[in-house]
């Protein structure tokens, strides 16, 4: 439990603060810094590209780097940059800092996945991974507390300082954890090097092996549905002339749901199977979107619940499912490529959403598209649930990857 809690706190720092604190504070920062809409658009594009680059780098060369050192390095970079944000006034420098933190966040999650799958108990793997991944939801909640309790008294710069202080404390906790793991597991160095995939093997595995292929496909569909959902939700509610408070209430429900969903859905995956856990989260997301389509004013908060139920634990469940077949290093590499496909899906989904909004003048069609993608995810989860005990791969491999080491 100590390992899961510590790595979950790392997720709060890297994703909750490194990726999302700026979005929470930018209206307050604009009162003293000239951050234009052009700057915001540039930040959005560059951070997305940096996250993709970090995930791709993790998939290709992450297995050559010790995951503990990787976590310490990314944590140190993020902590220093969080502190630096409190002193910056140039929008271009702020853009550069946020871009680096986005790449660092992607790499950090890969290190978390590898450490949990290598050192954690196999029977609790999904619980540990899903709980750690829900750290992002806890970051959402802490961002809200900063805005409500700290920043009104001390200003927006204090939010970045406090985030950096929490990052420094997390580094100390992580260092203590890694020392403890090293003392208890001295024989893992040979195992982790033998279980890694070369770049050619990695891409061949993703194309030809059922588990790796389905994991990346699911990540793509999640990106194509979840990213437009979160990007356009408040705009959609405003388009329907619904109260602005409804959007705030919906996102509060999302965060609270995500905080609890990681542990609960992870337990479900470990006890009943990853397929059933995925069916619950994707089925719940699809049903919540159908309810939103039926009556947005009544079921917006239900859609927020479905999004929180799906998005935050999904990363841990997918990583845990992959780890049942592959070693810890290979799991980290496949997860890195899955993050890339997620980003590509998100970019494509938002581009299509923008085109639909431009051509029709309404976001109704966008949410119909998102609902369709959610139903596809539920069907994919149903397929995994039905075939989870089936050892045969989706594709017949035409090559040998020395799978005796990886399975």
TrEMBL record:
InterPro entries per the UniProt record, alphabetical: MFS, MFS_4, MFS_dom, MFS_trans_sf
- The Major facilitator superfamily (MFS) profile domain is annotated at 1-390
Q: Which GO terms describe its molecular function?
A: transmembrane transporter activity
The alphabetical list of record keywords is: Membrane, Transmembrane, Transmembrane helix
Instruction: Give the stretches traversing the membrane.
Output: 12-29, 35-58, 70-88, 94-116, 137-154, 160-178, 212-233, 245-265, 277-294, 300-322, 334-353, 365-386
Q: Which PROSITE patterns match?
A: MFS
Q: Which Gene Ontology terms of cellular component type are present?
A: plasma membrane
Know the name of this protein? Putative MFS family arabinose efflux permease
Species per Swiss-Prot/TrEMBL record: Marinobacterium mangrovicola
């Amino acid at each position: 439990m100590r390992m899961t809690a510590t790595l979950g706190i790392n997720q709060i720092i890297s994703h909750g603060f490194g990726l999302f604190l700026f979005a929470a504070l930018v209206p307050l920062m604009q009162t003293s810094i000239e951050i234009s809409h052009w700057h915001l658009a540039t930040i959005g594009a560059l951070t997305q590209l940096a996250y993709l680059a970090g995930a791709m780098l993790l998939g290709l060369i992450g297995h050559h780097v010790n995951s503990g050192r990787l976590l310490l390095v990314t944590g140190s970079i993020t902590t220093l940059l969080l502190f630096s944000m409190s002193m910056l006034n140039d929008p271009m420098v702020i853009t550069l800092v946020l871009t680096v933190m986005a790449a660092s966040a992607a790499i950090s999650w890969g290190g978390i996945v590898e450490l949990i799958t290598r050192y954690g108990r196999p029977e609790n793997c999904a619980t540990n991974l899903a709980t750690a991944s829900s750290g992002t939801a806890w970051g959402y909640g802490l961002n809200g507390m900063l805005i409500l309790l700290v920043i009104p008294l001390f200003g927006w710069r204090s939010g970045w300082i406090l985030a950096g202080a929490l990052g420094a404390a997390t580094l100390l906790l992580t260092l203590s954890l890694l020392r403890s793991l090293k003392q208890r597991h001295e024989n893992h160095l040979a195992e982790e090097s033998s279980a890694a995939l070369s770049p050619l093997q990695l891409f061949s595995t993703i194309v030809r092996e059922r588990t790796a292929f389905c994991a990346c496909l699911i990540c793509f569909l999640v990106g194509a549905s979840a990213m437009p959902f979160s990007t356009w939700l408040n705009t959609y509610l405003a388009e329907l002339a619904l109260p602005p408070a409804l959007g705030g209430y919906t996102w509060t429900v999302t965060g609270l749901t995500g905080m609890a969903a990681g542990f609960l859905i992870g337990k479900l995956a470990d006890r009943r199977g990853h397929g059933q856990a995925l069916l619950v989260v994707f089925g719940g997301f699809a049903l919540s979107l159908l309810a939103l389509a039926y009556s947005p004013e009544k079921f917006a908060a239900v859609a927020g619940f479905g999004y929180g139920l799906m998005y935050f634990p999904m990363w841990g469940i997918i990583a845990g499912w992959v780890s049942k077949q592959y070693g810890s290093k290979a799991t980290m590499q496949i997860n890195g490529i899955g993050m890339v496909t997620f980003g590509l899906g998100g970019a494509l989904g938002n581009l299509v959403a923008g085109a639909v909004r431009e051509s029709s003048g309404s976001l109704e069609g966008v949410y119909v598209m998102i609902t369709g993608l959610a139903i596809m995810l539920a069907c994919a989860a149903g397929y995994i649930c039905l075939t989870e005990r089936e050892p045969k791969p989706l594709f017949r491999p035409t090559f040998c990857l020395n799978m005796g080491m990886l399975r």
